[in-house]
């Protein structure tokens, strides 16, 4: 079904790129019937499963993307571009218009599958997204949740200092929470090294491709499964860290100060002042995804997430305001009398800075 969805989407995109989406009167045509016919003929020739609903959703998705490009180009000097879906993309997805009743919501489309969670009753009959990611399938369904009311009583605040060596250092009036200390080095880096080794082995197979094509295909498939398994393990470790920390913070605190951690700017080769290994660890930790996760948790539990600026907080002594420009990459910060962990000092500085602004 992924192949069918991608094919229908790309056929629609081709029509939009070649300006074949309007009739003689200049009105937008409904491309679904034309593309349905073409896809059905192609699937018959391949003896593959055909589903008209999948094709319809793909065409509508392409139309939605095209309209978004037109809308964005009006305000952004024609920088937007409509692209085809690639089969090499790691994450593939398609839409089912109406989820049928029963324990298996996609039995007619995907065949027999086993679900790890129960489907909520309100999701039946509504659209859902089925995603394929590194050898695993995910079904995204609609679920109604009750969002908690606004903050009442005393307001508890906490500041987060994101980092690489330590994923997040959180400082409040009553405690310090250190999450993911050396997490990337101890947990992720060993997995990444194994993936690199397997990728290198996969690349070396190219030399033996012509000698035994069947052996090459089997070996490549085996290596791909191992690579995906390791990547999934890494993704699960990161997601677990994100979820645990986000839930703990929204359970205890009402206002969370989270500075913008601009990993893209810091990782650019021409401007960066950090090493390649550090850049890789930073990107693996996926701070942006954590920000989106904690934003959702805050909305769900009626808490407030405040975006803030962390400039000079890691260089500034939080106890007297003096700026130390020579702190470099040291793990501690000290003026000779007071010695403090640098990340804790940074988190405390963020909290003081934001509370001072508020008052």
Automatic annotation (TrEMBL):
Organism listed in the record: hydrothermal vent metagenome
Keywords: DNA-binding
Pfam families: Cas12f1-like_TNB (PF07282)
Residue intervals of the Cas12f1-like TNB domain: 287-350
A molecular-function term among this protein's GO annotations: DNA binding
Keyword Nucleotide-binding on entry: no
Alphabetized PANTHER family for the sequence: PTHR36172, RESOLVASE-RELATED
Protein name, as recorded: ISSoc2, transposase
